[in-house]
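P.,

For your records, the input lines for the assembly:
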Amino acid sequence: MLTNNDRITVPQTVALLITTILGTGILSLPRNVANAAGSDGWLLVLSGGVFAFVSSLIVGALVKKFPQDTFIEYSQKVLGKILGYPLGIILILYFTILTALTVRVFSEVMNAFMLISTPRGFIIFTMLLLSVYILRHGIEPIARIGEILLPILIVPVVAMYLTAIPRADFSELLPFLNTPVKTLALGTFQTVYSFFGFEVLLMVGPYIRSPGRVLWILLVAIGSITLIYLFVVIIVFASIGVEDTRILLWPSMSIIRTIMAPGGIFERLDALAMALWTIAAFTTINGMYYAGTLAVTHLTKAKEFKFFITIMLPWVYLISIIPENPLDTIRWMQVAGVVGIMIAVIIPAVILMVSIVRNKGGKTA
Amino acid sequence: MSPFCKKIARKSLFIFTAVFLAFVILSGCWDYRDIDKRLFVGGVGIDKSQQPGRYNISFLIPIVRAIAGGEGGGGGGGGGGGGNQKPVEVESTVADSITDGARNLALRLNRDLSFEHMRVVVIGEDVAKSGVEPVINPFMRQMEFNRRSRIAIAEGEARKVMEIQPWVEKFPALYLESLFGNESLSGKFIDGDLGDFLHQIHDFNGNALVSKISPDSQEVNIGGGAVLKHFKLAGWLTEEEARGINFFQGKITGGNITIDDPEGKGKVTFIILRAHRQLQLTADGPAPEFRLKVCVEGNISDTTEGVSLNIHNEEVIEDLVSKEVKSEILKGISRLQQDYRVDVLKLGEYLHKYHPKLWKDYKDRWEDIFPDVMISVAVTTKVKNIGVTK
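C-alpha cells returned:
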C-alpha cells in the first residue's frame, strides 16, 4: 500500500511540523491579534497555542489508533466508503488551496518588499518548481530539509527581532487584561489559523517511525511555535505600537525597516528578513503540497506519487492567482482558516468518536 | 525506435529543456536597476502650491558625480568641497501627491528616484495648517520610504529648508539628520523619527508633537516644536516649552540650564546629565489630577569668577535649577492646556495604559477634560560634579 518505504524519525517529524506551521501566519498574526484584542493580543497567542495543542491531540489520537493508515483509509474504514470518499476529496482540495494561498502570500510579500516589478506569476511558478523538485524525492528528504532549515530559520529570526529591543517600548503591552473574556475567547479562533499545519499529520501519520510518541511530537512542535509567535508579537507591539500594527498588512515584515542592527554595521536587515521569509514559505509549501499529493495518491490507490506532484502543479498555480489583490488574498486566507477548523479539528473528532463507538482500529489512545 | 535511440532522444530533450530554462531564468531580473541610473533622494519638502489642492514638492538630490570628484580634489579641509559644482540639487514640481511628484520628474530627469535613503521629510507651514492627513499616507503605505527618517514642520516654506547650503556638511540631508542627533547637547527640540510620528498620529487621532525647523539661508534652527491637532498645525512651542515637555515625558538626555549665581555676581551654567520622571494619578473626578516628579542630575560647568562653591551654595544652586526646570515644565503644560487644548503629553495614553477603567469614562470627552487636568510638578536636582575648582 505504501508508495514509499521511507520512514521519518521523531525529531524529523517535529522539524517537519514546526517548519510547516511556521509560514504565512507569522507575518499577519500581530495584526490579527491586535485587531481582536488590542494590547491584550499577545494573550491570544497563548490561548491559541493551548487550543491548537488540545485540538491537535485529536489528530494525534487518530495517528496512534491507525498507525498503518492515512486519513483517506481510516475515514473510509470508519465512516464507510460513501462518506469517506468525499471527505478525502475535501482534504485534497483543502491542502491544494492552502498550498496555493501560501505561495500566493509569499509572492505578495516579495512583491511588496523586494521584487517590486517582478511579475507575481513568475515568483509563484519558480517557488513551486523548487518545491516540486524536492517533493519528488519523497517524505524523507522533505523531513531532512526541515531538520536542516529549522535552526537556520529560528536562530536568525530570534536574533533579528532581538535587535529591536533597545528601541522598543514595552508599556505598549498595557493595559493588561482590559478585554472582555468573550472577546478573548472569540479572538482565540483568529489565532488558531496560524497554528494550522499540524493537520499534515493526517497524511504523514503512517510514515512516522514511532507513532506512539506522537503526543510528544505535537507538544514540542506546537509549544515551540507558540513561543516563537509570542516573541514576535510582543516585539512588534513594543516596536510600533498596537494602533500601527492594526493597519499594517504584514507588520512583522514592516518593523524590520525600523530596526537598526547595533553598531551600525548592518543598517538594513531587509535582505536577511526576505531570505528567512523565503525559507519559512518554502518549508510550509513543501509540507502542504506533499500532504495534498499523498492524499490524491492514496485516494486513487496509485502506486507512484511522483506523477501527481507534477499533475497538481498547474492547479496550485491557477488557484494561487485567483485572488485579485492582497486584501482579497487575506479574505481567502480567512475562509481557508474556517475550513481548516473543520478539517483539522471537527472531522477528525467525528471520526475518532465513531471509531471508538464502533470499536474499529487499534487500541484507544 | 531502438532503446538506445530512445535514450539519446530523452537525453537531448533534457538538455534542451535545461538550456531553455537557463535562458529564461538567468537572463536577468525584472527589478534590476543600475545604481548609476538612480537618483537617491535625501529629503522631501512639501509645500502648498498656487493651484488649490495641489502641492509643491521639492526633492533634495545629492549629485554623486560632483561628490566623487570633490573627494579627490578637496580632501576634506573645512568643507570647501571639490570643484565648482554644487554637491546637491533641489528639484521642485507641482503635483497632487509625492508619488505624482516623483513621476513628474521623469519628464525632466532621465533617472529613477529612489527613496530608500531618504533622511528628512519637511512639511511646509501652509500644508501643516490645512492638514497633513493627505500627504503622510504614502510614508506608511509604501515600503521604500525609510521609517527612520526625520520629520519636521518648517516655519515658512519647506523648500527653503531644502535649499540651505550648510558650510559644515556637504549634504544638507545629512546635516539636517545629524542636527537631530544632538539631543544629548540640547533638549530644546522635539526628537522623533517618521515611525514615531506615524505612531502618534495613529494612536491619538491625529494629535502629535513634531519637530520644528526654521530655515535661514545657510543654516536651519531646530529649536522648539510644532503641535498638531487633528492633523492640523495648532501652533508652535518655544525652545523652553519644548524642553519642559521633554522633561515631562522623560526624554531629556542632556542640555544646559543657566541660572543666576547664589551670590548675585553672575551666572552659573548647569549641564544636565540625565533626568528621570515619575507620573502618578492622584485623584479622579470630573478631571483627573496628576503628580509629576522629576529628578535632574548634572554637573556645574561654569560659574562667574570669584564665586566659590560650598555646600550651602550647592544647595542653593540645586534649588534654583529645580525652580527653572519646574517653570519650563509648567510653561509647556500651560501652553498645551490653555492655548492649544491638545493632549500631546500622552496623559490620555497614560490613563489608557495604567488606569483603563477610568479612561473609559474620560475617553469620549477627553479633549474637553484635558485643559482642566491638574498637574502638580515637583523637581529635585542633584549636583554630581563641579569640575576641578572649588
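Two observations worth noting. The first strand of chain B starts at residue 38 and ends at 40. Residues 34-65+85-236 of chain B form one domain.

Regards
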